[in-house]
């Protein structure tokens, strides 16, 4: 997915291509508002008092979609609401699946958003791209698909290189070498657990020695990483079978596995590991079962184009509606 499959765009042209249309902005903000309302209804109905982090999965969608949600116009202009209504709140957590696409989006973001947006890498992570991911992506808040000690070490090394680079830049500019901003501190990581046992899915086996070894390694040995929690992508069939009266086996498995890891690591109060589980089809069920973070894509952005047809900067007539 590239922004320059033909001729490189000028800065003015690129800026114009990143600007979302009012129609697309209205559609996206309405969809986002609906998801947030469903999250709020679920937490209220089930007396859940902790905040739920919503990651908007923007993979294969143009940068203009991200800008529309991250810097929404006033409510009256965007959604044709009365002027006294509160403006839409910016959506700042976004999920991406492909390293090259994430690199390009993070570099092309307008400067006022580069320090605000918090990127989550949620796709399958290749070892040969892990170090680059952690070193080069500004605003990388979390990597949620860590499944080996090797990948954890490469992420730790890449994050360390980024911190060192930012510290050197601060010193050169007379900033005193403070070590960079918050987004250049420890990188949050989630260990991916294959709760469904499907061969097509990545992840470590739940409640396994390999899982505990990986979590302990990140906790004890990777000083540039923070073990934030566990993540799973459950089986589609189980998600479709889940109702308000039934529990999703994958979610229960991840919850039980998280509790086991926390006990084995001897984590105390205030060191609780998070659960990242639940997507468009089942995020409400995931919240009911204790998820701290849900990853919602198509319900907000609509159907994705084939990867070969996706563009970071869409054609002028496209507007990102595909």
UniProtKB/TrEMBL annotation:
Location of N6-(pyridoxal phosphate)lysine modifications: 59
Region annotation Disordered: where it falls in the sequence: 1-27, 160-186, 299-322
Domain Alanine racemase N-terminal: from-to ranges: 94-305
Composition-biased stretches (Basic and acidic residues): 160-172, 306-322
Family: Belongs to the pyridoxal phosphate-binding protein YggS/PROSC family.
GO terms assigned for molecular function: pyridoxal phosphate binding
CDD domains: PLPDE_III_YBL036c_euk
Role according to the record: Pyridoxal 5'-phosphate (PLP)-binding protein, which may be involved in intracellular homeostatic regulation of pyridoxal 5'-phosphate (PLP), the active form of vitamin B6.
NCBIfam families documented for this protein: YggS family pyridoxal phosphate-dependent enzyme (TIGR00044)
Record-given protein name: Pyridoxal phosphate homeostasis protein
PANTHER family named among the record's database cross-references: PROLINE SYNTHETASE CO-TRANSCRIBED BACTERIAL HOMOLOG PROTEIN (PTHR10146), PYRIDOXAL PHOSPHATE HOMEOSTASIS PROTEIN (PTHR10146:SF14)
This protein's UniProt keywords: Pyridoxal phosphate
Bias (Polar residues): 1-14
Short name of one Pfam family: Ala_racemase_N
InterPro entries: Ala_racemase_N (IPR001608), PLP-binding_barrel (IPR029066), PyrdxlP_homeostasis (IPR011078)
């Amino acid at each position: 997915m590239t922004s320059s499959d033909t001729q490189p765009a000028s800065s003015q042209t690129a800026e114009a291509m990143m600007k979302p249309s009012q129609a697309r902005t209205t559609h996206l903000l309405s969809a986002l508002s609906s998801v947030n309302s469903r999250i709020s209804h679920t937490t209220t109905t089930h007396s859940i008092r902790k905040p739920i982090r919503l990651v908007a999965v923007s993979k294969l969608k143009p940068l203009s979609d991200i800008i529309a949600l991250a810097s929404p116009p006033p409510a009256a202009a965007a959604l044709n609401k009365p002027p006294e209504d509160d403006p839409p709140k910016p959506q700042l957590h976004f999920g991406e699946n492909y390293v090259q696409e994430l690199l390009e989006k993070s570099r092309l973001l307008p400067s006022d958003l580069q320090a605000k947006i918090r990127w989550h890498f949620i796709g399958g992570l290749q070892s040969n791209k892990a170090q680059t991911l952690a070193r080069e992506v500004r605003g990388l808040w979390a990597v949620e698909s860590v499944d080996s000690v090797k990948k954890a070490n490469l992420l730790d090394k890449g994050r360390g290189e980024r911190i060192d680079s930012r510290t050197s830049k601060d010193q050169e500019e007379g900033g005193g070498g403070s070590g960079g901003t918050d987004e250049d501190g420890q990188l949050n990581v989630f260990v991916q657990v294959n709760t469904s046992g499907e061969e097509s899915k990545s992840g470590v086996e739940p409640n396994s020695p390999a899982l505990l070894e990986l979590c302990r390694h990140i906790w004890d040995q990777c000083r540039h990483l923070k073990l934030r929690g566990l993540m799973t992508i459950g089986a589609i069939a189980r998600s479709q079978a889940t109702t308000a009266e039934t529990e999703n086996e994958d979610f229960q498995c991840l919850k039980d596995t998280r509790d086991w890891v926390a006990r084995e690591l001897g984590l105390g109060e205030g060191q609780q590991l998070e659960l990242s589980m639940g997507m468009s089809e089942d995020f409400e069920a995931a919240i009911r079962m204790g998820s701290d973070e849900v990853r919602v894509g198509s319900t907000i952005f609509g159907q994705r184009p084939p990867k070969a047809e996706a563009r970071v900067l869409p054609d002028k007539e496209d507007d990102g509606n595909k």
